[in-house]
Amino acid sequence: MKYIIEVKNLIKKYGSVTALNNVSFNIEEGKFFSLLGPSGCGKTTILRIIGGFIEQDSGTVLIDGTDMKDVPPNKRNTSMVFQNLALFPHMSVRENIVYGLKKRKVPEYRIKELLKNILSVVNLEGFETRRISQLSGGQQQRVALARSLIIKPKILLLDEPLAALDKKLRISMRTELKEIQRKTGTTFLYVTHDQSEALTMSDIVAVMNEGKIIQIGKPDKIYNRPKNIFVADFIGAGNFIPINKIETEKKFFKISTDSGGKIILLKDSMEIDDSDTFRTVFNTACTDTYNTFNGSAESLDSEKKIYNIFFIRPEKIKIFTDFIGNTVRPETEINKFNGKIISKTFEGPDIRIKIYSEGLGNITAEIKNDEIYRDFNENSEISFYWNISDGIILQTFLNR
């Protein structure tokens, strides 16, 4: 396994504001790696430090094994695509794309070869003589990518390049970006606050908040097994159900909610984190809602108490009723609840319904836009369930 980027203990402050707080991560060569988080969490700061546009206060950046300290941007073998694209409007597509090669005094015959290849990769053949103003937003985006890729960088840095596009074009460009990355084999480091972008394009996602990386992993792991409440809430919708008590059996957790509901969870579903901190916290938490954490983990304060939450995604909740012809029923009565529909929201291919259940409180479910559900309305009485392998227990900490 070769790491093309190694970031070690980065710290960056702007006055009294800490933009990056001891950030470390590695990126394998040829991967599509995304930094995902809310505005102001430090994503772009990392990108600009790696590119050499700003300097960290402390910490190390290695590119292809070489320390980048005091190495200027033009010597780092990186290239950057900015949010505003920064194309030259007075130049043609060809002139924009080969600009970096001209600066490097690459021979004309070689420029022609490289241009032909990159135009094919980004699907812009036949557009060489057009002005930037004559292109659509998606075509301009591909010109910016071609200009950055034609110089064959080790890493392509992308700072929210799709943010200015309309929704339909953004979705289309996600597929194109991933395909371009696959064709070129270039390592992509992508910055975004859009969860869908990160999940659909990335090989690896690093979720950030307040200058720290909270969780790194494959998109499906981040989505299905979030490390904490912040990640669970930031990556898509979810239900957070307060827990009163957790009892353990050989293969299951028996969970009692604050509202009196009973949930069964397969223990294998909790294998989300191999760290000693998580195992200590969880084992301590499995007797009562409020337990003092007495572990030695530096990041946790022994003066705080653990509060447990059962978390489940809306699409994991399955609906069945007695008054619909094609009845869908669970194999067992485990994790079955009754409720009343509070609201129903049409979202095209999906319908989002909010349900009140005495044992759980308010629950959101996501169902397909299917005719068997079209009679659902506010105040409809329904029953719902989820599998014992769905959902996860998360912890939060409260001061004494």
Q: Would you kindly provide a brief summary of this structure?
A:
The protein has helices at about 45-50, 95, 100-105, 110-120, 135-150, 165-185, 195-200, 220-225, 230-235, 275-285, and strands spanning about 5-15, 15-30, 30-35, 60-65, 65, 80, 155-160, 185-190, 205-210, 210-215, 240-250, 250-255, 260-265, 290, 305-310, 320, 335-345, 350-355, 360-370, 380-385, 390-400.
Structure description:
This protein has 400 residues and is α+β, with helices and mostly antiparallel strands. The protein folds into two domains: 226 residues, 3-Layer(aba) Sandwich (Rossmann fold), CATH 3.40.50; 164 residues, OB fold (Dihydrolipoamide Acetyltransferase, E2P) (Beta Barrel). Helix content is 23%, strand content 35%. It contains ten helices and 21 strands. It has a six-stranded mixed sheet with strand order 6-7-8-3-9-10, sandwiched between helices. Strands 11, 12, 13, 14, 15 and 21 form a six-stranded antiparallel sheet that branches. β9 and β10 form a beta hairpin. The protein is globular, with a radius of gyration of 25 Å. The two termini are 45 Å apart.
Secondary-structure map:
Blueprint: E1 3-14, E2 17-28, E3 32-36, H1 43-51, E4 58-63, E5 66-67, E6 78-81, H2 93-97, H3 99-103, H4 108-121, H5 137-149, E7 155-159, H6 167-184, E8 187-192, H7 195-201, E9 204-209, E10 212-217, H8 219-224, H9 229-234, E11 239-248, E12 252-257, E13 262-266, H10 276-285, E14 291-292, E15 304-312, E16 318-320, E17 336-346, E18 350-357, E19 361-368, E20 381-385, E21 392-399
Parallel strand pairs: 3-8, 3-9, 6-7, 7-8
Antiparallel strand pairs: 1-2, 1-4, 4-5, 9-10, 11-12, 11-15, 12-13, 14-15, 15-21, 16-20, 17-18, 17-20, 18-19
